[in-house]
């Protein structure tokens, strides 16, 4: 059994000793036969990370780091073959004496990997498509009792919205994916006149606890949404064993307080073990007292990451340096870091990361020798999480000044709140939660109070971009999620011997050729590195993020592995049980991008009304998955309507 080598001492100050664990109650469990220690309050993921297991396996020839956004599913050993019993390790409380198995597509790593990284890796070989599958996403939801208001997201905006709904006489269900309410406001600190994040969260939580009209569902992830209904993967943690189920929850009103996520800077090696985002690193330390290694490097283009450095300043962990992609940035936290004596390098970004000696990371810089550290914290700025917004039929557009996608227009019966709506101060998030309920009920309300500090004192965040070349030393990922989307490869240098070899069938070279739905993070990365025109980002998001709406379920007698009509498993039943793979006849001068949605009429942009999707271009022909009854269609490709005829 591995010791908890990555657990901070109980005496660690600044609230980083693990607020959600009980160190007086040790536990241990097994996962794939590996005995893992932990404490009461740990999730399966946090216990693994505390024990030094930081690698999922290998992908594209390199180790892939274990983190919340891309952790493999698990199940109790006796039920590992049943998808309805699969559990997310980042949301599953670790139970003493439990025996878990990893649920993943593809084989485990070979003997070589197990010998040379003993205990550090889960040993998965991840080059199989959909290797980090989420089995519950192919299960039909049980019909739940309807409610008046569903609030998705248990941060300060979501809690404020839930209370506002309850005060208005509504029956409310507040849904939060993580084990605890509170969201991500802890890293952002306070502004003048505000209470601390911890005090604010405690007050809101206490008020919710005594309100009988609010039902709180933690450990519950909303992964699909339709008109007046959300689909939830919910964990029942009340018994000795954690159980799961998928529920369709109808509601008259929906508030999406889904927050914002930290973008992954696009550079080679950006998902190696030992790399984390600033928000992720803070939450692991604050909630579970986890910090790997004794040295770290911070690379950021956003101010809140500097606060993480100040919180760790009095620990025994050495901060080698802080790199900031902005020139001469200003912030109170930057000044605090100067006072602590941290070395800061403005206008400097890492070029690449490679595995170093002794399990460390080797960070390549623009000048000088590579820096060896135990941990690299990458902060690429924040992007509102608009995934569910797009699944619900919402639109967005690219804000050039803020370098992010922002919501556009309205969706009936649904309102965004908090960071998802573009508010990043705590006061703005709280008041936007209240304002969201006012809008749903048609009340004027008092609007959103979102104070913004002058840019002279607080330099705005920006996105960090790092280019790579054809001979990049390590894989470059576009997002930190479980799709494992790699940066498209540059066009190969063609030799005369290749002239007669036909079309290229190697790695994806254009983002639209990717065979899976695109995440919001991947689309933002595509804009940053020039693969998606900024003016088209909103259209691409609407078409590619919304590929799997609420209706996409696999029939009970069928598994995703059995879906074999030439389309990816995630599209099973998307366009009806009788959908067919057909050829589209259209203007031959136009090559349609994979993922472009197909409609029966030109007058619609609602992705929920799509009747098909372009799969690929093969041998000069466009193949698509379409409903069997469709003959004349219109393909929405990068915002343009392209007439097409379906040949079956």
TrEMBL record:
SUPFAM superfamilies, alphabetized: FAD/NAD(P)-binding domain
Record's keyword terms, sorted: Oxidoreductase
| Keyword Oxidoreductase part of the UniProt annotation | yes
Listed GO molecular functions?
A: oxidoreductase activity
* Any one Pfam family match given in the protein's UniProt record, by short name: Fer2_4
Q: Which Gene3D superfamilies match?
A: 2Fe-2S iron-sulphur cluster binding domain, sarcosine oxidase, alpha subunit, N-terminal domain, FAD/NAD(P)-binding domain
Coiled-coil annotation reads none
Q: What sequence ranges are listed for the domain FAD/NAD(P)-binding?
A: 148-270
Question: What protein does this entry describe?
Answer: FAD/NAD(P)-binding domain-containing protein
């Amino acid at each position: 059994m591995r010791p908890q080598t990555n657990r901070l001492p109980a005496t660690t100050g600044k609230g980083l000793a693990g607020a959600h664990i009980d160190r007086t109650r040790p536990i241990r469990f097994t996962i794939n036969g590996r005995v893992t220690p932990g404490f009461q309050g740990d999730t399966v993921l946090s216990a693994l990370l505390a024990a030094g297991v930081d690698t999922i396996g290998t992908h594209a020839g390199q180790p892939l780091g274990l983190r919340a956004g891309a952790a493999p599913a698990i199940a109790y050993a006796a039920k590992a073959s049943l998808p309805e019993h699969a559990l997310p390790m980042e949301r599953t409380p670790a139970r003493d004496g439990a025996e878990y198995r990893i649920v993943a597509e593809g084989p485990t790593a070979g003997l070589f990997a197990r010998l040379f990284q003993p205990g550090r890796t889960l040993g998965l070989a991840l080059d199989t498509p959909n290797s980090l599958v989420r089995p519950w996403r192919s299960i039909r939801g049980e019909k739940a009792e309807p409610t008046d208001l569903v609030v998705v997201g248990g941060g300060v905006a979501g809690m404020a919205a839930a209370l506002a709904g309850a005060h208005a006489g509504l029956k409310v269900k507040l849904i939060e994916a993580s084990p605890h309410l509170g969201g991500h406001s802890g890293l952002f600190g306070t502004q003048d006149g505000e209470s601390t994040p911890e005090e604010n969260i405690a007050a809101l939580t206490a008020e919710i606890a005594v309100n009988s009209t609010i039902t709180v569902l933690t450990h519950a992830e909303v992964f699909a949404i339709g008109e007046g209904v959300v689909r939830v993967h919910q964990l029942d943690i009340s018994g000795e064993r954690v159980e799961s189920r998928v529920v369709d929850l109808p509601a008259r009103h929906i508030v999406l307080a889904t927050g914002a996520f930290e973008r992954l800077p696009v550079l080679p090696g950006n998902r190696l073990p030992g790399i984390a985002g600033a928000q992720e690193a803070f939450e692991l330390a604050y909630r579970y007292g986890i910090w790997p290694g004794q040295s770290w490097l911070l690379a950021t283009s956003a101010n809140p990451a500097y606060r993480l450095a100040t919180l760790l300043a009095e620990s025994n962990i050495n901060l080698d340096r802080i790199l900031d992609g902005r020139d001469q940035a200003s912030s109170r936290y930057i000044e605090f870091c100067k006072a602590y004596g941290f070395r800061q390098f403005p206008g400097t970004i890492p070029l690449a990361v490679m595995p170093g000696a002794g399990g460390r990371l080797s960070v390549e810089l623009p000048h000088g020798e590579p820096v060896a550290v135990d941990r690299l914290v990458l902060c690429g700025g924040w992007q509102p999480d608009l995934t569910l917004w797009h699944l619900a039929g919402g639109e967005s557009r690219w804000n050039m000044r803020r370098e992010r996608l922002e919501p556009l227009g309205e969706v009936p019966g649904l309102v965004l709140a908090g960071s998802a709506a573009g508010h990043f101060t705590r006061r703005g998030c709280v008041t936007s939660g209240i304002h969201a309920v006012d809008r749903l009920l048609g009340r004027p309300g008092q609007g959103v109070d979102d104070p913004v500090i002058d840019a002279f004192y607080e330099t705005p965040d920006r996105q960090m971009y790092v280019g790579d070349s054809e001979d990049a030393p390590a894989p470059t990922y576009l997002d930190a999620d479980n799709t494992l989307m790699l940066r498209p490869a540059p066009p190969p240098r063609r030799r005369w011997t290749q002239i007669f070899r036909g079309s290229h069938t190697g790695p994806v070279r254009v983002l639209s050729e990717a065979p899976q739905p695109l995440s919001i993070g991947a689309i933002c990365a595509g804009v940053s590195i020039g693969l998606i025109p900024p003016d088209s980002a909103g259209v691409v998001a609407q078409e590619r993020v919304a590929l799997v709406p609420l209706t996409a379920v696999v029939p009970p007698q069928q598994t995703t592995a059995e879906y074999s009509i030439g389309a990816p498993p995630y599209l099973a039943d998307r366009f009806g049980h009788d959908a067919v793979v057909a050829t589209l006849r259209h203007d031959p001068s136009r090559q349609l991008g994979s993922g472009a949605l197909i409609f029966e009429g030109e007058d619609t942009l609602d992705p929920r009304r799509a009747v098909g999707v372009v799969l690929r271009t093969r041998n000069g022909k466009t193949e698509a998955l379409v409903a069997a009854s469709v003959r004349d269609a219109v393909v929405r490709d990068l915002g343009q309507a392209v007439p097409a005829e379906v040949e079956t």
